[in-house]
UniProtKB/TrEMBL annotation, chain A:
One Gene Ontology molecular-function label: NAD binding
Ion transport keyword on record: no
Source species taxonomy: Eukaryota, Viridiplantae, Streptophyta, Embryophyta, Tracheophyta
Record domain D-isomer specific 2-hydroxyacid dehydrogenase catalytic: where: 6-312
InterPro entries reported in the protein's UniProt record: D-isomer_2-hydroxyacid_DH, D-isomer_2_OHA_DH_cat_dom, D-isomer_DH_CS1, D-isomer_DH_NAD-bd, NAD(P)-bd_dom_sf
Family the UniProt entry places it in: Belongs to the D-isomer specific 2-hydroxyacid dehydrogenase family.
Protein name: glyoxylate reductase (NADP(+))
TrEMBL record, chain B:
Family of this protein: Belongs to the D-isomer specific 2-hydroxyacid dehydrogenase family.
Domain D-isomer specific 2-hydroxyacid dehydrogenase catalytic stretches: 44-333
EC number per UniProt: 1.1.1.79
Keyword Nucleus on entry: no
One Pfam family this sequence matches: 2-Hacid_dh
Residue ranges annotated for the D-isomer specific 2-hydroxyacid dehydrogenase NAD-binding domain, each copy included: 129-302
Taxonomic superkingdom: Eukaryota
Transmembrane segments: none
Source organism phylogeny: Eukaryota, Viridiplantae, Streptophyta, Embryophyta, Tracheophyta
Gene Ontology cellular component terms for the protein in this record: cytosol
Record protein name field: glyoxylate reductase (NADP(+))
Alphabetically ordered keywords of this record: NAD, NADP, Oxidoreductase
GO terms under biological process: photorespiration
Record organism: Lithocarpus litseifolius
A GO term, aspect molecular function: hydroxypyruvate reductase [NAD(P)H] activity
Length: 313, 336
């Protein structure tokens, strides 16, 4: 298949890059000094795009590649892909669900525990030599805290399963009720926020869910509440979040995603009640390799005219 | 009639020596939060507030004292100390661990011991899991990275390690160990254990010795008590068996691990990482650990939640009240 030209949008994985190079004619977007230069050399040969959470396939890119047949995303999130355009033009789209579900759910739990029990703050306390001066203070107990999940999809369900093992009652807000679960359903996000102590944002970013966690939701969660985001930064109104934390209107936050990665609001850096991670939800050796394998398998299936493994469009 | 009320003598003040005596050598952390509750119910002899040396204080003031309240912090409850308390019948400790109490002396003199029971097992288990996820997924280390502005300048953070499917070796499957196991099962981990005795109520694989458990595990979580048998039980041999990718979490007692050998293994990359809430000489922590990103450090705070402290306070008071009214203790430690 090395006559087939595949475009990789950013340096997302050395392993994936090697695999693509071995099988296809690989073009790396970041090696071109300008868009014009890139389009001049490649616009008529590229038949596949491998994108990720940083650079996907927007309308401009899709329109400039007339031979494009498939976008295989190295992510489960699809917010960087113009799905409507792909649908219009009959371009297939695949992503990497399931293989990263556990890792992202683990990070959500890690953030919950780190914020509720102040693990990172404790680590700083010890490293700064403060322990000889006196004991650490009391935190709140985590086990049994009411956990509210926004988006009870694969990742949301995996988070619920873990939190249940800590005796946490689970409630959720989702596009549709899931009667096969025993969790308490709320038909709107404000009621969910009022009725939980930890609100976990685990849904996809779409036009409808943009800033779904706004000032009203944050205020409903309240000064004892903890907000966790492992979805996409723009699910939360970030400036509102920052001001709520600075003003003590929100109890704490654990964030793996931000509106303008890799920029993180600097006002958060001095706060002890937040934990900040650089979008590492699926960043383990095991899972990144599994994601890469799934991207390759989808591409191979497409060009061998076999059924796609994880199609979205 | 109104005049009767005016002439009724006031109720006698409860004199503190009417309350039952309880000796404390040192204030347990929970005591500092609930001083009033204890003082209202018991006549407290506070050795640390006296200018007298301990043996003089006890001889002069605690000759008829039957009950003691202690904790893991403060002077050990040694045979020497207990000999200065001829009337001692009960030691109530705010800890689950008993390593600070001379158990042989208690056995010989028929002194009962009541401890924290299961009051904070969940909190300790929560911290153990929190530390483990932190080490595997680099929560604290990547939080430092972000706070130093390095994400924007240096790029993505190095990959962590997947927790699901990992083999967890629990050392000590008591109340805390069991709560840890229950939680980690939900993450898709495989649980094995070593304990003094096999436990019939679980189906996890049982290993008779810790070195073999380590050789068959990706993670060791220390949940046992400190005794003569467990002191320095986790030594270089066990750590090498755990291996270069192995992670150790300790929420038991620092001295269960040979700390110098642990530090050496971490510095030399012979094990993959550690999450530690306890140390051999608290509050001293080996400075070499401060250089390492694969280590997460906590200041013995696993039980430091408002809920645990309140429950602990209720349990301590409950044990003392039961003792003084000749009722069964709430959390009597059975000799095993």
């Amino acid at each position: 298949m090395d006559s087939i030209t595949v475009l990789m949008t950013s340096p997302m994985s050395d392993y994936l890059e090697t695999q693509l190079k071995d099988r296809f004619n690989l073009v790396k977007l970041w090696t071109y000094s300008s868009k014009t230069d890139f389009f001049k050399h490649n616009s008529h040969s590229i038949r596949a795009i491998v994108g990720n959470t940083k650079i996907g396939a927007d309308a401009e890119l899709i329109d400039s590649l007339p031979e494009l047949e498939i976008v295989s995303s190295y992510s489960v999130g699809l917010d960087k892909i113009d799905l409507r355009k792909c649908q219009e033009k009959g371009i297939r789209v695949t992503n990497t669900p399931d293989v990263l579900t556990d890792d992202v759910a683990d990070v959500a739990m890690g953030l919950m525990l780190a914020v509720a029990r102040r693990v990172c703050e404790c680590d700083r306390f010890v490293r700064r030599g403060l322990w000889p001066k006196g004991d650490f203070r009391l935190t709140n107990k985590f086990s049994g805290m009411q956990v509210g999940i926004v988006g009870l999809g694969r990742i949301g369900s995996a988070i619920a399963k873990r939190a249940e093992a800590f005796g946490c009652p689970i409630s959720y807000y989702s596009r549709s009720e899931k009667p096969e679960t025993n969790y308490k359903y709320f038909s709107n996000i404000i009621d969910l926020a009022v009725n939980c102590q930890i609100l976990v944002v685990a849904c996809a970013l779409t036009e409808e869910t943009h800033h779904i966690v706004n000032r009203e939701v944050i205020d409903a969660l309240g000064p004892e509440g903890i907000l966790i985001n492992i979805g996409r930064g723009s699910l939360i109104d970030e400036p509102e979040l920052v001001s709520a934390l600075l003003q003590g209107r929100l109890g704490g936050a654990g964030l793996d995603v931000f509106e303008n990665e890799p920029e993180v609001p600097e006002q958060l850096f001095g706060l002890e009640n937040v934990v900040l991670m650089p979008h590492v939800g699926s960043d383990t050796v095991e899972t990144t390799d599994a994601m890469a394998d799934l991207v390759i398998k989808n591409l191979e299936a497409h060009f061998l005219k076999k059924p796609l493994l994880t199609p979205v469009v | 009639m109104a005049t009767d009320q005016a002439t009724t003598p006031p109720a006698p003040e409860i004199q503190s020596h009417d309350l039952s005596q309880v000796i404390l050598l040192h204030p347990p952390p929970v005591f500092n939060y609930f001083k009033d509750l204890f003082s209202k119910k018991f006549h407290l002899l506070k050795a640390w507030e006296s200018p007298l040396p301990l043996h003089e204080f006890l001889t002069n003031h605690a000759h008829s004292t039957q009950a003691m309240l202690c904790s893991g912090t403060g002077p050990p409850i040694s045979a020497d100390v207990m000999r200065l308390l001829p009337s001692l019948r009960l030691v109530v400790t705010t800890s689950a661990g008993l390593n600070h109490i001379d158990l042989t002396e208690c056995r010989n003199r028929g002194i009962s011991i009541a401890n924290a029971g299961e009051v904070f097992s969940e909190d300790v288990a929560d911290l153990a899991v929190g530390l483990l996820i932190d080490v595997f997924r680099k929560v604290s280390a990547s939080d430092r990275y972000v706070r130093h502005g390095l994400w924007a300048t240096k790029g993505d953070y190095p990959l962590g390690s997947k927790l699901g499917g990992k083999r967890i070796g629990i050392v000590g499957l008591g109340s805390i160990g069991f709560q840890v196991a229950k939680r980690l099962e939900a993450f898709g981990c495989n649980i094995s254990y070593n304990s003094r005795k096999r436990k019939d109520f679980v189906s996890y694989p049982f290993y008779t010795n810790v070195r073999e458990l380590a050789a068959n595990s990706d993670v060791l979580i220390i949940c046992c008590g400190l005794t003569e048998q467990t002191r320095h039980m986790i030594n270089r041999e066990v750590l090498l068996a755990l291996g270069k990718e192995g992670v150790i979490v300790n929420i038991g007692r620092g001295a269960i691990i040979h700390e110098k050998e642990l530090v050496q293994c971490l510095v030399q990359g012979e094990i993959g990482g550690a999450g530690l809430d306890v140390f051999e000489n608290e509050p001293d922590v080996p400075k070499e650990l401060f250089e390492l990103d694969n280590v997460v450090l906590a200041p013995h705070m696993a039980v430091f939640t408002t809920e645990s402290f309140k429950d602990l306070c209720d349990l301590m008071i409950g044990n003392l009240e039961a003792f003084f009214s000749k009722k069964p203790l709430l959390s009597l430690v059975m000799n095993e």
